Amino acid sequence: MPALMPLYVDSDAIESGAIYSNESTWAYATNEVSMSGEWVDVPNLTINLTLAQPATVLQIAQVDYRRGSDYSNFGIRLLRGGTVGGVPMYRRARYGAHWQNVFMMWSWVGTSAGSHTFKVQCSTGTIASRKHILIVMRI
To answer: In angstroms, rounded to a whole number, what is the distance separating the alpha carbons of residues 6 and 82?
Structure first.
């Protein structure tokens, strides 16, 4: 059995032009919004992205939330064109009405050239500071 040797990769190992910052984008909002329902589009976080060539798109979302005093689960999921990326994540509120944070990401490998709509959806709760980031990569 051959020995496995760890290798270090730094930014010099990334091929020039592999990450296209002119296509990468983000959206954010800070106002408080009450969400009601199983899955609701998070306001101000929908991103329409047009790709000139196929790519891998890393979708990242961060949401500050609170559930009130019922300590129920708060759900978050990521979508591209109506398709859910991975498995929705649920967090149980640990401190009731206190603000908490949830972070989720998904890699959309082989995203075709053309227009795509990326969304973040959450379940019932109050949200505040939130961010949605798309990093476009071609390697």
So the answer is: 39
